[in-house]
Amino acid sequence: MTLYPKLITDALEKVRYPGSGKNIVEAGMVADNIRIAGNKVSFSLILDRPNDPFAKSLIRASETAILTYVGAEVDVKGNISLQIREDAAATDGRANPAPTVAQPLLPRVKNSIAISSGKGGVGKSTISANLAVALAQLGYKVGLLDADIYGPSIPKMFGEEAAKPCMEVVDGGRELIVPIEKYGVKLLSIGFFVDANDALIWRSAMASNALKQLITGADWGELDYFLIDLPPGTGDIHLTLIQSLNLTGGIVVTTPQDVALAAARKGISLFQNEKINVPIVGLVENMAWFTPAELPDNRYYIFGKDGGKNLAKELKIPFLGEIPIVQSLCEAGDHGTPSALNPDTAMGQAFQQLAEKIVCEANAS
Ligand code: ADP
């Protein structure tokens, strides 16, 4: 079973706080720190006062709800801690909240995963955008950085082409870029800062530095998954870029044709380069088959069959899933409404499954 935060919060909605009649999620009593590692779930409950008489029974009720509604095999007993609401503690005079200490970005990001493809046009950005939305729908905190300097398409896929991120001043007078938030995903793209006509100038000037600026010079906050949509290819720029990003994992997207598979092979060995050594989360096969709307049971393997699956097997890396060619996926991208927003559709489900598999593999690697 794959666990994700929304499964836990759904179960916790069954727990009512005595007296208020509200469930503990609605009452803001479940902290934003749900951690999942394999079967182990831990998080905090937030109470208004230190001596709340219901504290122990709330913990027990929360454990029972999770074991009943999520599964008896979940390891939650003894893993729920208590926090006292900061404003309550401060006005109470009973506690002095610790001063906030500015932290570097990456320590607050649990998984930073780059998505690459050996060649352009295989659907890397489409997969990145939908995966980010699907992870957000599972309840994770997600950031997506569009690092595709050759053709930043994430702004269009999220319907945010005109967005201009603002700056905010944080401690010590440092200015940080504020990511755009859409569909539960924090977004930044080279496309927000560079006019398409200036892209050429940027390409030569930026290499890894400008992208690093979008990472460490932005207020990403706490994230469970930070996805980076890399530029297509496997040249020197990619090597430097990946090296500078301090990644926890890499995903490679391919289509089934031989040329794409050959490029994907290079993409995989780039992550595995001894200077980089990024764990491979797995391979995604996009455009795996075509099903015409009028013949929904037919699958036409127009680019070949199982190419991605066989490559993953050969290289002993996880195969994350297949996405068919679907007209609506292309249209959804063009209209700024990723298909993963509708988990009831076949495409939405495909991306949800892909997200679940990635959660599984990212935790394992
Ligand atoms: P890349 O980032 O690899 O260059 P994109 O994600 O920009 O590729 O996709 C290229 C084009 O193909 C886009 O118009 C996109 O909508 C379309 N596309 C990608 N995957 C699919 C798919 N599975 N079905 C239909 N169209 C797709």
Description of the molecule:
- The strands form three sheets. An eight-stranded mixed sheet has the order 8-9-5-10-4-11-12-13, with helices on both faces. The chain has a three-stranded mixed sheet with strand order 1-2-3. A two-stranded antiparallel sheet has the order 6-7.
- The chain is an alpha/beta fold and 365 residues long.
- It contains eleven helices and 13 strands.
- The chain has helices at residues 5-12, 55-69, 86-92, 124-137, 154-157, 199-216, 236-245, 258-272, 307-315, 327-335, 346-364; strands spanning 35-37, 40-47, 80-84, 109-116, 142-146, 167-169, 175-177, 180-182, 185-189, 223-229, 249-254, 280-290, 319-325.
- The radius of gyration is 22 Å and the shape is globular.
- Helix 6 runs parallel beside helix 7 (236-245).
- Strand 12, helix 9 (307-315) and strand 13 form a beta-alpha-beta unit.
- It binds adenosine-5'-diphosphate (ADP).
- Adenosine-5'-diphosphate is lined by residues 117, 120-126, 153, 232, 286-287, 323, 325-326, 329-330, 333.
